[in-house]
């Protein structure tokens, strides 16, 4: 069996080797990430590189069941000396998170709801800063921290919060370091999944790898708590299935530094329900389970996301907004004919060469005549003579009501106003970032989120700029 820390290195090596092969040319938005059990957005118990969008608020309630016939009793050094009564209980947690400026996610964690263990109130703070997030597919980077207060067992000192959230008077005395503060760095790769097999099979995938201290690392030498730990490394993956315009199904698996957790969550307009199986990697020891931490546990989650800037305050999840490939329909060729012409070929029509950027994201070379006609192909054939059978590929905003009346557009929960000028662009300088009302949306290749400016194709070769802050 490969040790956890080596498995983390293997995962990183696989991503490094396969990344150029799986990264496609078309852009897409990163999917809405699931809710963690008690620390905002992420997988089940590990963070990811993305954060909640600006002013989006997320509240989460989660819990899990513990059923033990006996529980480990430890001495001051954390060594198991015997067994006490069993544990049959339900432990729950809650959190409240908010996104700020599309760069920061911060919030509060409320732990130890229910359960028979004492130790007073346990609560915490958490935050994450997005360092880099790709416009399309790519690798994002973030850094963050979690702070959780220590339980209070009648004034006894030296206790620290454990990773499952409930207060435990066995945890802390034999630690080499505390777990109140858990700092970490994390990288997430966002990849397009499969499109075949119908809409429900269309999906996006993420792979996350990170390193942290505190709860991600400490307690590994305690037999009842952390054998098989990965010395602070954590990693996980998720698959997000596009099940509808306002629904998203996320399936995930992770190693949080100690446990392998698996789960799924279904998101409907920001209302999210989930189920999870924790500590699935721990086999039954001789004599049966005696540790809440190593016993596989079933739990559930309920979460709601609120978007104050959207109608009804409901947050539609970010799905895979794929656009069907542009297609040019060409009629069947006539029967084969051999024409012998002994005369001189007529001269090609004259005009000025021009490069048009299409809404497909590709440049096309044409010739424009003085009369305003567009000539295409090596023989400089008039495009007007080929229509409607053959035309430029792509979808365009020209003629759309919202474009003609000058309405602002809402893209990625941000409002962009229409600029007064139309102009030409070079397709090599822009990148598609999504779709609005069936029309592709582009941004500068060097732009970072949150976007300040986007480009909308009006007709072949003509583009309109939309900017934040314009009415």
Question: Within the largest sheet, what's the order of strands?
Answer: 1-2-3-4-5-6-7-8-9-10-11-12
Low-pLDDT windows of residues:
1-28, 320-329
CATH fold naming of the largest domain: Porin
CATH superfamily of the largest domain: monomeric porin ompg
User: How much of the polypeptide forms β-strand, as a percent range?
Assistant: 35-45%
Radius of gyration from the CA trace? 28 Å
Tell me the total number of β-strands. 22
The main β sheet shows up as: 12 strands, antiparallel, barrel
Specify the overall morphology.
elongated
What percent of the residues sit in helical stretches (DSSP H or I)?
Answer: under 10%
The succession of helices and strands, N to C, reads HEEEEEEEEEEEEEEEEHHEEEEEE
Could you describe the 3D structure shown?
The chain has 471 residues and is mainly beta. It folds into 2 domains: 310 residues, monomeric porin ompg (Porin, Beta Barrel), CATH 2.40.160; 123 residues, no CATH class. The protein has 3 helices and 22 strands. The strands form 4 sheets. A 12-stranded antiparallel β-barrel has the order 1-2-3-4-5-6-7-8-9-10-11-12. The N and C termini lie far apart (61 Å).
């Amino acid at each position: 069996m490969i040790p956890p820390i080596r498995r983390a290195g293997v995962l990183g090596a696989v991503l490094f080797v396969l990344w150029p092969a799986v990264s496609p040319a078309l852009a897409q938005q990163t999917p809405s990430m699931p809710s963690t059990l008690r620390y905002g957005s992420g997988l089940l118990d590990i963070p990811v590189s993305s954060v909640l969008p600006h002013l989006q608020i997320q509240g989460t309630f989660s819990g899990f069941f513990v059923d033990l016939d006996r529980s480990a009793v430890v001495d001051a050094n954390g060594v198991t000396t015997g067994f006490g009564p069993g544990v049959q209980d339900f432990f729950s947690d809650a959190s409240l998170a908010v996104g700020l400026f599309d760069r920061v996610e911060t919030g509060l964690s409320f732990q130890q709801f229910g359960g028979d263990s004492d130790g007073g109130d346990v609560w915490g703070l958490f935050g994450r800063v997005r360092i880099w997030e790709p416009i399309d597919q790519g690798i994002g980077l973030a850094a963050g921290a979690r702070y959780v207060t220590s339980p209070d067992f009648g004034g006894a000192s030296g206790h620290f919060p454990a990773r499952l959230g409930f207060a435990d008077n066995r945890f802390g005395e034999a630690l080499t370091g505390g777990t109140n503060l858990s700092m970490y760095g994390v990288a997430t790769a966002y990849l397009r999944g499969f499109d075949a097999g119908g809409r429900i099979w269309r999906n996006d995938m993420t792979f996350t790898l990170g390193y942290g201290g505190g709860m991600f690392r400490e307690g590994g030498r305690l037999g009842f708590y952390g054998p098989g730990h990965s010395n602070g490394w954590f990693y996980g993956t998720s698959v997000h299935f596009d099940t509808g315009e306002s629904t998203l199904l996320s399936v995930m698996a992770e190693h949080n530094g100690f446990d392998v957790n698996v789960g799924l969550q279904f998101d409907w307009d920001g209302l999210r329900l989930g189920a999870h199986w924790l500590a699935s990697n721990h086999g039954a020891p001789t004599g049966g389970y005696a540790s809440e931490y190593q016993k596989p546990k079933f739990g559930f989650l309920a979460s709601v996301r609120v978007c104050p800037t959207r109608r009804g305050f409901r947050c539609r999840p970010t799905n895979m907004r794929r656009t069907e490939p542009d297609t040019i329909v060409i009629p069947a060729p006539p029967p084969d004919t051999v024409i012998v012409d002994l005369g001189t070929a007529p001269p090609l029509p004259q005009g000025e060469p021009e490069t048009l950027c299409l809404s497909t994201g590709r440049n096309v070379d044409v010739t424009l005549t003085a009369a305003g006609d567009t000539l295409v192909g090596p023989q400089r054939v008039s495009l007007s003579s080929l229509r409607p059978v053959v035309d430029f590929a792509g979808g365009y905003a020209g003629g759309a009501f919202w474009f003609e009346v000058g309405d602002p557009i809402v893209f990625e929960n941000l409002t962009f106003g229409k600029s007064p000028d139309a102009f030409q662009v070079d397709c090599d300088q822009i990148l598609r970032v999504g779709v609005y009302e069936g029309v592709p949306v582009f941004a500068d290749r060097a732009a970072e989120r949150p976007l300040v400016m986007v480009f909308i194709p009006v007709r072949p070769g003509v583009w309109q700029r939309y900017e934040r802050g314009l009415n």
